[in-house]
Design brief:
The protein is of the alpha+beta class. 32% of the residues lie in helices and 17% in strands.
């Protein structure tokens, strides 16, 4: 029934018809197509599945201004039938070459906007406005303030006349979903029509509804057993990189080896635990409390007064101390002291060459007042870690560090000194 070359949708008998309407769907959107209905050479419809609403996109090519009225009425009657056949909850969009010059007449608003390229609507433009008004549509392409070169959609064969005859209509309930419509006259599409781009704010459905597999949680409860904790510590000591290996490794490589050793040893010695099943704890009492909280917040917002800049506290340093410990209160002196402070800690060392030019060596300034922590300090802080806390991005609970033994303390001390 159809030809799908490079994800295109077109009837086989219309492959060589220059007026045939088709859709070209790219990327992952192909897997979201849930329906395609070819009507004739001038009208076709494509349905795309969305997360909240599906989208029915009707592509239409209306007769030009000089065609007989019967032919125009026939096409617009078919367009109305196709539009009415769309599911009621769908976001309905009509696009294509409608050969309709829509003006800026006030009597047609709000169906049309004030920024159309033309001042007066022609016969096709009036038919476009009539069908839009009867079906609750809005000519969205006439609402955006653009330069004329970004409004025109077709250039005549004499290369002098430009018209805006390609239209984008959308259901008025979803007026704000289209946030931009403009043409790109420089796009090489081998046509006398310009490329019309429509930017939409929408949410499409998920292509694959597969849940991400969760990382297994280490059974840290096993560490309460002294024998298991001792076995874990011994296995981890054998798995951790030696001091010689760490000395020859970079910070990233060394930490990767340490992290891998902790994770693999923990799974081998302690095993994993199943995730807890969720309980239906949100009962009527919880619902009542939430409603009371929302009511109290609404009351607070109702009586809240708007704060001005003069009423807010400004975070600014009004005083500080110099290197000798003297208190500085002058604003210029305070700013200069902060500049000196950050120059010392962030901008590195600087030297002055023979010509008097200051050269920044880029080296980090060493502050002897804050030496790197020793082994005992690292061990003390590890012992102070709390149990039953959520693990970080490395998926290493604090219990695995606390029961890792002296070898793990030395490895973590190497990491901290390396960073310091």
């Amino acid at each position: 029934m159809e030809k799908r070359a490079s994800c295109g949708y077109l009837l086989p008998e219309l492959w060589h018809n220059q007026r045939a309407q088709c859709f070209v769907v790219l990327g992952k959107v192909r897997q979201r197509v849930i329906g395609w209905l070819p009507i004739n050479a001038r009208i076709s419809r494509l349905r795309i599945k969305g997360r909240f609403f599906s989208y029915s996109i009707i592509n239409v090519h209306c007769p030009h201004e000089g065609r007989p009225d019967d032919e125009k009425e026939s096409i617009y009657a078919q367009l109305e039938q196709v539009y009415d056949s769309c599911p009621q909850r769908d976001v309905k969009i009509v696009i294509g070459d409608m050969n309709a010059q829509v003006g800026r007449e006030r009597m047609y608003r709000p169906v049309i906007g004030p920024n159309s390229l033309h001042a007066v609507s022609n016969d096709n433009g009036q038919r476009c406005v009539n069908i839009a008004a009867s079906r609750g549509l809005v000519v969205r392409s006439a609402f955006f303030l653009r330069k004329d070169i970004h409004k025109a959609t077709w250039r005549s064969p004499d290369q002098q006349t430009e018209n805006q005859i390609d239209r984008v209509l959308i259901d008025g309930k979803f007026f704000s979903d289209i946030i931009n419509v403009r043409t790109y006259c420089s796009a090489n599409i081998d046509s006398d029509h310009y490329l019309v781009a429509v930017c939409m704010r929408t949410k499409l459905s998920t292509v694959y509804n597969t849940r991400r597999s969760r990382t297994p949680r280490t059974n840290t409860e096993q560490l309460r057993d002294t024998a298991v904790a001792m076995e874990y510590s011994q296995q981890l000591e054998a798995a951790l990189p030696t001091e010689e290996q760490l000395g020859a490794a970079t910070l990233e490589d060394g930490w990767r080896d340490i992290r891998t050793a902790i994770g693999c040893t923990a799974i081998a010695a302690l095993g994993t635990t199943a995730s807890n099943q969720r309980n239906d704890w949100f009962d009527g009492e919880c619902k009542q409390l939430v409603e009371e909280k929302n009511a109290a917040r609404a009351k607070m917002l109702q009586h809240r007064t708007e704060l001005t800049w003069n009423d807010t506290d400004r975070l600014c340093a009004t005083m500080c101390r110099d290197l000798e410990g003297n208190l500085l209160t002058n604003e210029c002196e305070v700013v200069e002291r902060w500049k000196q402070h950050y120059d010392e800690h962030l901008n590195g060392d600087a030297v002055v060459d023979g010509s008097g030019t200051t050269i920044d060596l880029g080296a980090r300034a060493v502050d002897d007042r804050f030496p790197a922590p020793d082994l005992q300090e690292v061990e003390k802080e590890i012992r102070r870690l709390k149990n039953n806390k959520a693990a970080g991005i490395d998926n290493l609970p604090s219990e695995l560090l606390k029961y890792g033994g002296d070898a793990l303390v030395r490895a973590l001390h190497w990491v901290i000194v390396k960073i310091w």
